[in-house]
Amino acid sequence: MIAVRDVHKHFGGFRAVDGATLEIRDGSITGLIGPNGAGKSTLFNVIAGVLKPTSGTVTMDGEDITGLPPHELFHKGLLRTFQIAHEFSSMTVRENLMMVPSGQTGETLWNTWFHRRRIAEEERALLKKADEVLEFLTIDHLKDEKAGNLSGGQKKLLELGRTMMVDAKVVFLDEVGAGVNRTLLNTIGDAIVRLNKERGYTFCLIEHDMDFIARLCDPVIVMAEGKVLAQGSADHIMENEQVIEAYLGTGLKNKPGADATA
Fold first, then answer.
1. Contact criterion met (CB below 8 Å) for 57 and 64
2. For the ABC transporter domain, which residue ranges apply (predicted)?
3. CATH code, 2-87+153-248
């Protein structure tokens, strides 16, 4: 579905992404891991149109999407969430979802005067869909809560819900587990798996929680110093000596009880 070919992103003399090549298969949940500064979020931003690459190409279903702005990619079904949730804090959870679809009739002043019936019909349909999304995510009890009052994990679920309002094809999730307690992280994981299996969503996610990665992701891609270091199943990655030295050496390799000579 997504093919990244020899992508570079330089900031002056700093090569944040340095010749990355990878593929995200249609229908997969792909994990992207690596140490801080490996270039993961920068690569996400290049794919999602937030940043233009210095060189290289990104294609989606064979179409060159290199450098297309986020709003154009949004209409193609490619969405990206952020490590820090970007909710509209003064609006309710339900309202946050209802405003996601673009091209709503009520967006223009002319239509608010002359197409009130159409606007009312659209709002009823959006309300119904928003409630279905909230029920799917098991946060329907929060539908009338101000989004700014939600916990970190609930805000991550709300961001996931936004992707459901437009039936996304591929969703890039940046550190979905950051600041989220284990119970809510499991709920988020369950929702991702269900969206993948029941609705055909393709996911690529950056995450540092290797247990979460191992539960959800196949394949797992490892980045280091702007390059793709390794790719494979979670078990294969965690046994890869090159990965252990470059990334997991300060994490998995030195976990309490781990073999110090591994």
1. yes
2. 2-250
3. 3.40.50.300
Give percent of the chain with pLDDT exceeding 90.
58
Output the pTM of the full model. 0.82
- CB neighbours (10 Å) of residue 84? 12
CA distance 39 to 33: 10
Say which residue the tokens 């990665």 belong to.
Answer: 213
Give 111 or 62, the one with higher predicted confidence. 62
Closest residue by Cα to residue 225 from 246, 252, 240, 253: 246
Instruction: Give yes or no for a contact between 215 and 189, defined as CB atoms under 8 angstroms apart.
Output: yes
Q: Which residue has the tokens 């070919």?
A: 5
Domain ranges of the chain: 2-87+153-248, 92-149
Interatomic CA distance for residues 238 and 225, integer angstroms: 19
Mean pLDDT of the chain: 86
Write down the H helix ranges in the chain.
40-47, 70-75, 93-98, 109-114, 116-136, 152-164, 182-199, 210-216, 234-239, 241-246
DSSP for 187-215 reads HHHHHHHHHHHHH--EEEEE-S-HHHHHH
Is the pLDDT at 111 greater than 80? The verdict is no
